[in-house]
Amino acid sequence: MFKVYHFKKLTSTNDRAKDFTENSVIIADEQTKGKGRFKRGWSSAKGGIYLSIVSKIKDKPSYLTLIAAISTQKAIEDIYGIKTIIKWPNDLIYNGKKVCGILTTINKQKAIIGIGMNTNNKIPFSLRNKATSLNKILKKKVNNKKIIKRLLNHFGNYLKLLKNRKYSKIIKDWKKNSFLGFNIEVKTGNKKYIGIACNIDKNLFLILKDKEGRKIKIIEGDIIIK
Ligand code: BT5
Which domain CATH number covers 202? Predict the structure, then answer.
């Protein structure tokens, strides 16, 4: 279902993907200007997985980030038995450290879902406290090709569910290994909230319960798991 285009080096697979049609997958061995959310960067040394999937779904694009997270999580678990936690909205976490980040951008009717996964790449010293890689966790080289194949397989299946509007099935799968129930701190704009990650609603907004029992809806933000 997907057509894969492989490049040795790109600035960002999300940028390059803008020139491609639906169901193209752009992969780079390394990125010179990998992007995170809110104009942040993504460290993209050789050895990691950097890919972008082009999709045409305009309805509920935030679900694309969700299905990318579930697909990536499942691929890692299927092949290497590693159980990561999905931290809303776009991270896979192992032992408190980030293994994978997802960036979905919308460009002229197209959604571009960018997935960055630390596999065999070196993690910069400055990120050592918050990032890890599959290589570090398993203490061996991992097979990027195998992970990508499995990831795209899962993603294709979830895309079908999304096209058929099976939203509650997707949310149910997301919840299975998510951070719900954890104590968290949320930074959103200039506000900070502390509480329990309680739920995500149909619009995929996060519901946080604070210590007074108030439920607060979080539309966008950065989360720290306590
Ligand atoms: C993300 O942003 O987590 C989205 C990352 C998406 C990267 C992929 S790679 C393929 C595609 N092409 C692109 O150009 N991007 C996508 P955010 O939640 O904003 O997290 C960014 C923050 O994570 C940075 O500010 C760093 O603190 C940290 N970070 C940077 N590189 C990292 C890495 N390799 N592993 C873990 N954390 C990293």
Answer: 2.30.30.100
